[in-house]
Amino acid sequence: MVEYRIDRRSGVATYLQIVQQTKQALRLGLLEPGDQLPTAREVVEATAINPNTVLKAYRELEREGLVEARRGLGTFVRRALGAAAAGSPLRSELAAWAARARASGLDRDDVAALFASVLDEQFADSTDNTEGDEAMNKGDNA
Amino acid sequence: MTDTAIEAAALGKRFGGPSRRGGWALRDCGFRLPAGRICAVVGPNGAGKSTLLAHAAGLLEPTEGTLTVLGSHPSAARERIAYVAQDKPLYPQLTVTETLRLGHELNPGRWDAALAERIVTDGHLDPAARIRDLSGGQRTRVALALVLGKRPELLLLDEPMADLDPLARHQLMGTLLAEAAEHGTTVVMSSHILGELAHACDFLLLVGDGRIRLGGAIDDLVAAHRLITGRGPLTDALAPHTVIESRATGRGLTALIRPAGPIAPGWEAAEPSLEDILLAHLRSPDAPALLTPGATARSSASDMSAAVTA
Amino acid sequence: MSASATLRRSSGGRLRGPYWTTVRLHRAILWGALGLVIAAAVVAVALRVSAVVIPEQTDCVGACTDTFLGFDSARAFLGITADYAATALLFLPFLVGAVVAGPVIARELESGTHRLAWTQSASPARWLAAKLTVAAVATTALVLALVGSYQFLRAPVAGTYNQRWVDRGVFEAYGPVLIAYCLLAVAIGALAGLVVRRTLPAMAIAGVVSLSMILAVGSVRWDVFPVRTITGSGTGRMDGTMAIGRDSFLMQSGYVTASGDRLPYNACWQRTRDFDSCPADLNITGWYVDFHPHTHFWWVTFAETAIMLALAAAAAWAAFRLLRRRTV
């Protein structure tokens, strides 16, 4: 069972933190297909965040095909995320790039800013935006 | 069951006699809170938050205007509403157990004894301890046990977490929201600071000077504002939009606006945080009010008076 | 079953809802009332027993030596206690009104616990109804118990000076009248508590108003209720006062003139220093006596009880109305 840690000062929307942490757990193999995600009630009780936020995150994961909600049972993992795991070629390329950046005199913050700006550029079209959808019932996924 | 938890139309409350000048705690207050929301009522001290909650709890009669709760007059919805006043009133001479028995006796047929006892037990309270011997935080816990045990459809909490240490605050808020998630309870919490409420709530009412200055789903309110930064001439860039606040930053300008059309090129627009929006509105008391469509009162006055007399 | 067992059983087992709440919240006051009842009963029994066990000294010449706690006798002490007890009972409405106004009603409004009580499923009207009912039942039981002890205490001195049926305190302490005044005090207390909303001022106002009622009405009671009059011919005024009997209460007596006017009882005495010889110029044709026969006891008891209960109902109605305006 995955346990979400909400960073209230990160500036990242709370539902996105849940989405990202779920994906991270899928990448690292902490969650596998068939596993159940914690119920909205359990997440809310542990994190004291809004129930609708949890449901919004789960809907987003469902939309991406990663999980599925089974009525009355809970939310279950449908497929794993296997890319970019530790030891993949992409990771070693990135490690080599980071070493060069450091050697050229950039400090940690410079590297992070550079990386973030490239990410923004490359993934500009995939910004998640799932607004609205008022007609949900909090009771359903609980 | 109605889809509206609270609806106010032209609600006004004046304390003291009519001769006293400026005694309005609420004036021309209108909004709609959909059912199932976790709503934060924020605003500076003395803005009218407590007065608003007391009206919804059926403890005050409006001087003018109307307020319906769960589709009916507050007094008709008494069984389905629970309310904790700011000072957490409890009977000092009762023990914790007796206080929960009181909840059972005064709410027959609704009372969830197991839930109320669990909330008390989670705080390691001695059931035989008298209320007068409890700390402020322990008293808050008993008060919350009392209202959650009632299993209300609408839970009204006036500054609920002020007396709690961070751990108890987190735990009780978790319990509260979990119950709300399971039963679809509408929760209204007031606070003069947003703080942790920001993550717990999905609906916001900003009260200022007895009026609703902002009302709506938090996502909608955030989407309705933009934080723009740039160096161009002020008037051209901002002309079509509603400017809440603008401030010089270095050589440029940062402004919180409600966009009414495309933003002029050369200006960088970002999504503001809820805190940005609140602070800008608090610093600009004259900014026009904004109620999102979902937060606007729908009933006509005649519908409301029918509900009152029913 | 003892009264304490009754209290414990009813607060533990049978009471429900706002009635349980009210009894539990005001348990200390109810125990206090029970203590008062027990103390009164103990004093009454002790004095009655003493009056029997320690007889009066009748064989002493001149001043008798003190025989009982500095009093002439145990019976004399009993008589004095009965006199004071009758007066003390007149203060019961003060006590009842103050307790209901302050600790029972106003303290809730002052400390803010009414916001807890009025937002439960049981409505504010039921909250007030439970408070009034519990207060009324407890008050009735308290008055009955104290009146019972008092009647037991005064039995040996009943009818003596200060212990006649018309006397202040004695009249009320036969039961119904005092109960009615105390129930009126309950309603006045509730109304004062809701109006004033502060414990001590509410206690003072309700106590003083309740006490004023019983004292004021008591001072005009026999003047207001219509007297019975007997008349006779001649100047033998004293014959009339003798004729009304020991059980009756003489209000006024005097002479009647030929023109029908009434003259005071001492009209002749002032002129002749003799009650029975009257100067001819007064034209006295007979005498009159205004009095209350003992049967008036029942009429006045009934009338006064009814009036006070009606006033109590009116005050209670006003309290409910005020509460309804206060909440929604």
Automatic annotation (TrEMBL), chain A:
<protein>
    <submittedName>
        <fullName>HTH-type transcriptional repressor YtrA</fullName>
    </submittedName>
</protein>
<keyword id="KW-0804">Transcription</keyword>
<dbReference type="InterPro" id="IPR036388">
    <property type="entry name" value="WH-like_DNA-bd_sf"/>
</dbReference>
<dbReference type="GO" id="GO:0003677">
    <property type="term" value="F:DNA binding"/>
</dbReference>
<feature type="domain" description="HTH gntR-type">
    <location>
        <begin position="12"/>
        <end position="80"/>
    </location>
</feature>
<keyword id="KW-0805">Transcription regulation</keyword>
<dbReference type="Pfam" id="PF00392">
    <property type="entry name" value="GntR"/>
</dbReference>
<dbReference type="InterPro" id="IPR036390">
    <property type="entry name" value="WH_DNA-bd_sf"/>
</dbReference>
<keyword id="KW-0238">DNA-binding</keyword>
<dbReference type="GO" id="GO:0003700">
    <property type="term" value="F:DNA-binding transcription factor activity"/>
</dbReference>
<dbReference type="InterPro" id="IPR000524">
    <property type="entry name" value="Tscrpt_reg_HTH_GntR"/>
</dbReference>
TrEMBL record, chain B:
<dbReference type="InterPro" id="IPR017871">
    <property type="entry name" value="ABC_transporter-like_CS"/>
</dbReference>
<dbReference type="GO" id="GO:0016887">
    <property type="term" value="F:ATP hydrolysis activity"/>
</dbReference>
<keyword id="KW-0547">Nucleotide-binding</keyword>
<feature type="domain" description="ABC transporter">
    <location>
        <begin position="6"/>
        <end position="234"/>
    </location>
</feature>
<keyword id="KW-0067">ATP-binding</keyword>
<dbReference type="InterPro" id="IPR027417">
    <property type="entry name" value="P-loop_NTPase"/>
</dbReference>
<protein>
    <submittedName>
        <fullName>Putative ABC transporter ATP-binding protein YbhF</fullName>
    </submittedName>
</protein>
<dbReference type="GO" id="GO:0005524">
    <property type="term" value="F:ATP binding"/>
</dbReference>
<dbReference type="InterPro" id="IPR003439">
    <property type="entry name" value="ABC_transporter-like_ATP-bd"/>
</dbReference>
<dbReference type="InterPro" id="IPR003593">
    <property type="entry name" value="AAA+_ATPase"/>
</dbReference>
<dbReference type="InterPro" id="IPR051782">
    <property type="entry name" value="ABC_Transporter_VariousFunc"/>
</dbReference>
<dbReference type="Pfam" id="PF00005">
    <property type="entry name" value="ABC_tran"/>
</dbReference>
<keyword id="KW-0813">Transport</keyword>
Automatic annotation (TrEMBL), chain C:
<feature type="transmembrane region" description="Helical">
    <location>
        <begin position="28"/>
        <end position="47"/>
    </location>
</feature>
<feature type="transmembrane region" description="Helical">
    <location>
        <begin position="84"/>
        <end position="106"/>
    </location>
</feature>
<feature type="transmembrane region" description="Helical">
    <location>
        <begin position="203"/>
        <end position="222"/>
    </location>
</feature>
<keyword id="KW-1133">Transmembrane helix</keyword>
<feature type="transmembrane region" description="Helical">
    <location>
        <begin position="173"/>
        <end position="196"/>
    </location>
</feature>
<keyword id="KW-0472">Membrane</keyword>
<protein>
    <submittedName>
        <fullName>ABC-2 family transporter protein</fullName>
    </submittedName>
</protein>
<feature type="transmembrane region" description="Helical">
    <location>
        <begin position="297"/>
        <end position="320"/>
    </location>
</feature>
<keyword id="KW-0812">Transmembrane</keyword>
<feature type="transmembrane region" description="Helical">
    <location>
        <begin position="127"/>
        <end position="153"/>
    </location>
</feature>
